[in-house]
Design brief:
- The protein contains two helices and seven strands.
- By secondary structure, it is of the alpha+beta class.
- Strands 4-5-6-7 form a four-stranded antiparallel β-sheet, with no helix packed on it. Strands 1-2-3 form a three-stranded antiparallel β-sheet, with no helix packed on it.
- The longest helix is centred in the first third of the chain and has 19 residues.
- The N and C termini lie far apart (about 60 Å).
- The model has no long low-confidence stretch (mean pLDDT about 80).
Length: about 120
Amino acid sequence: MKHIALTLACLTALSGCAALNVPTPEAARLSDQTLTVTLNSGAVCRAEWRAAPQGQICGFGYRVNEVASANLLRQLAQGLTAALGAEGLLSPQAEVVLTSAAGQSYRFVSPPPVDLNP
């Protein structure tokens, strides 16, 4: 009986350690064509999101939802870069949703917000 209790305690401790080592997303950033995801394990994965706005990356499902900008300055900058033929110069504004196999969702905004109060 003592052996069974010790075995159960060891299994419980090991399962707790395994949960700590599960890779989770720390950041998701978009360029004009590429989604880059950084995990807490240090792994970095990339996917061509323009070709496939939904798919798999780093073992997570991803979905990119572009957002129309209400910011007048951003709209002017986008118009200027388009007129100059440099459409890919500005990072697109979008929400990136990563979903684990267990159904856990992680949401990121790209480009990340700037903290104006340091």
